[in-house]
Predict the 3D structure of the following.
Amino acid sequence: MAFARGDWFFVVMVFLTSFFMTRPYLYAIQQDNYRITEIFKNRRLRFVYFLDVCSVALFVGVWCVFYFVQAKAFFGFLTALFFFVAEFAMYFMEDLPTRKKPLKYTKRAVRCLLFVSLLGTALVSVALAVANVHIEDVYLRYLIFFGYPLAFPLVFIVGGNVINVFEKVNNKGYELRTARILKSMPHLEKIAITGSFGKTSVKNFLTSILNQKFNVLATPKSFNTPMGISLAVKELDETYDCFVAEFGARRVGDIKRLMKIVKPNLTVLTGINEQHLETFRSKENIIKEKCHILEVGEGICIVNDELRDIVEDKISGDKTQVVYAGFDEKSLIRAENIAVSDTGSTFELIIDGERHAVSTHLLGIHNIKNILLAVGVAYALGVETPYILRGIECMEPVPHRMELIHGNGINIIDDSFNGNPTGAKYALDTLALFDTRKVVLTPGLVELGKEEGEINFDLGRKIAEVADLVLLVGFKRTDSIKRGLLDAGYGGEIHIYKTLASAEEDFENRLKAYDTLLILNDLPDIYEEKR
C-alpha cells in the first residue's frame, strides 16, 4: 500500500475518530434491537451530522486559503490535524450528556463498534493509497479526511448491516440453545406474559405469589426479547419449579418468535391498545401479534376480560383453555366491592365463586386488574388460596410504574416508564383520588404512528379534567396536548419546557408543599428535542 510520509499518523487518527463517531449511531440502533433504520429518525444524530457539515465547511475553507501559500504542505498537515481534533472533541462531548438509558457495551455492541471503526479506517486507507499513486499534488489528499465524516453514515449503514448478518446467525444459536434448555426440563412450568401494557407489573406480582410455594425464576427488569430471555435462562437449573418470561413486541413476528423459543404451557394476555402502532403499522397487526400468546396447545391462557370478544374470535381449535380475569361477573377470577384511594385499594377477590377480602398499598384500579391476572395463573397452577393472599400482601410497586414517592412535602406518582394510552388514563384516574393540588408533568405519548396527534389531543382533554397545573416537555410533540387542554376549557396554568432537565430546574418555582405530581411517561433519548 502506497502511503506517503505521515499518512500512518492520520490513519490512527481516523480510527480513533471513527471509534467515537460510531458510538452515537450505535446508541441509536441499540434502542430498537439494532435496526439500522433507527439512525434516520434520531434527532440527535441529525443535529450532530449538521455540526459535521459546519465543521467540514469551516476547515475546507481554511484548507483553500492555505492552498495558495508557499508552505501549504505544512499548513495542510496542521489543518487536517486540527480538523481531527475538532471531530474527536465533538463526538467525545456528544457522549458526555447523561442518558436515560446509557449505551450498553454488550459483546454485540463492542463487535459492531470495532467493525465499523475498522471498516471506516480501511476505506480511508485505501483512498489515501489510491490518491498517492494517481494524484501528483499531495495537498489534495487532505480532502479525503474532510469528506470522511460526510460519508460516515453510509459507512455505518454498510458496516452495521454486515455485522447484523453475523449477529442474526449468532443469535439463532442462542435461541436454539435456550429452547433446548427449556425443553430439557419437563418439570418446569413455563409462563409467558404479553400485552400492550402491564407486562412487568403482572410478572412481578405473579412472582410474589408463586414465591410463596415454588422456586421461581423470572426474566429481570424488561428483558423481554429473545436475547434477554436467553440470558435469563442461563440461570435456570433443576431446582427451579417455574420460569416466568415477559414477551415484548414492537413488530409483526416478535411474539410468534418468542413462543417458538419458550413454548410456554401457561400464558397471560394483559391488554391491547395502540402502543407501538408506529412499528406495527395497524391496530389489526397489533391484535394479531399479541394473540399468538393464545397458541399454547393444551395449555391455559389467562386473559384480561376486556378482551373477551377479541380472544373468542381468535381461538383456534378446542385445546386451548382460556381463563378470564377482571371485573366482569362472568369471569372466573374477578374483583368486586372495589375501593381505591391515595393510599391503596381494598376489594373482594373472587376465585371460582369463593370470596376473600383483600387490601393492598398498590395505587390504581389497573393494578387490581394486574393482580387478578397474576391470581389467575396461580389458580391454574393449583396454588392454594392462603399462598395467593400472602403473595398479594407482599407485593411492592414496580419502579417507575405508578410508584408513589414522598419527598420534600410533595407526593410524586412516578409513572415514567413507557407511557401508553390505557396506562395514562389509569394514572390520571389515580391522580384524581388525591385531595391536593394536582400537577401533571408529561412529554406526551410516542410510537403511536399516524394516530399519535389525535391520541395526545385526547390525553390533553383527560388531563384537563384532573390537573390544576400542567408542565409539558417539548414544544412540538406536546402541541396536540395543549390543544386538547384548551379544547376542554382548561383554565389552569400551562408551562412548556424544552427538556425534562429544564422542567425539573423550575420545580421550585412551580410546585408547592403537599402538591401531588404525576410524572406521566419519559421519552427515550431518540425522541427528545435538541437544545
